[in-house]
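testing teh design pipeline on a random one, pls ignore if ur not involved
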């Protein structure tokens, strides 16, 4: 007997819309933003968390997918004795930055080994 995962249909829809948005980013930026907006709205409506890797690729202002040299420009900047990766959306101009130190672990808690309690097959 298969175990029913709560929100599975919503996760499948989010995945599909994310893939379409990524494919449309270089062809039609307005349509890409529309699909990115749908991804965020579906997650909010169903009270689901978007995976951090997907969330980092969505612009917070216009909700388009951030792809380097297509819809965003990436720079590495020094900020208060630490390095940061900064993305600038080519559509709306919004800036997004993340820390990038070599010696520190900047992964989100969900991506770390201690976050996994049990793997269900």
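output:
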């Amino acid at each position: 007997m298969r175990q029913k995962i709560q929100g599975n249909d919503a996760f499948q829809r989010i995945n599909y819309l994310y893939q379409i948005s990524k494919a449309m980013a270089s062809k039609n930026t307005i349509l890409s933003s529309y699909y990115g907006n749908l991804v965020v709205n579906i997650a909010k409506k169903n009270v689901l968390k978007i995976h951090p890797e997907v969330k980092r690729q969505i612009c917070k202002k216009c909700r388009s997918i951030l792809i380097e040299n297509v819809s965003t420009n990436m720079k590495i900047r020094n900020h208060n004795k630490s390095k940061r990766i900064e993305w600038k959306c080519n559509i709306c101009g919004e800036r997004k930055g993340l820390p990038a130190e070599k010696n520190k672990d900047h992964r989100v808690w969900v991506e770390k080994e201690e976050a996994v309690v049990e793997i269900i097959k």
